[in-house]
């Protein structure tokens, strides 16, 4: 096996889960700022609670994965949806 190959079933080495998480969260936070769903204030509250308990944004995104997918689909945000699905496949 090549050293630089990504294989999450062996290790998360060479997969930038933190960077991917930051990118997805930045996209999600644009929707939060726009207030385009009544879900977003709840999401912000739960994110703050999760951070207070020591959980990172990857965990937050994972906790709300089905809701986020449905919401992003409803909003027509294919770019963020694709990034979220890649994050799910690679890092969750």
Shape: globular
Q: For the CA atoms, what is the radius of gyration?
A: 14 Å
**Range of helix content:** 55-70%
Main β-sheet description? none
Report the strand count.
0
- Structural class of the secondary elements? mainly alpha
Sequence of secondary-structure elements: HHHHH
Number of H/I helices: 5
Number of domains: 1
* Whole-number mean pLDDT: 92
Distance between the termini: 23 Å
Strand-residue proportion: under 5%
List segments where confidence is low: pLDDT < 50 over at least 5 consecutive residues. none
Summarize the entry for a quick read.
The protein is mainly alpha-helical. The protein has five helices and no strands.
Describe what you observe in this structure.
This protein has 92 residues and is mainly α. The chain has helices at 17-34, 39-52, 57-63, 65-75, 78-91. It has one domain (17-91). The protein has 5 helices and no strands. The longest helix is centred in the first third of the chain and has 18 residues, at 17-34. It is globular, with a radius of gyration of 14 Å. Belongs to the CowN family. It comes from Rhodoplanes tepidamans. Is required to sustain N(2)-dependent growth in the presence of low levels of carbon monoxide (CO). Probably acts by protecting the N(2) fixation ability of the nitrogenase complex, which is inactivated in the presence of CO.
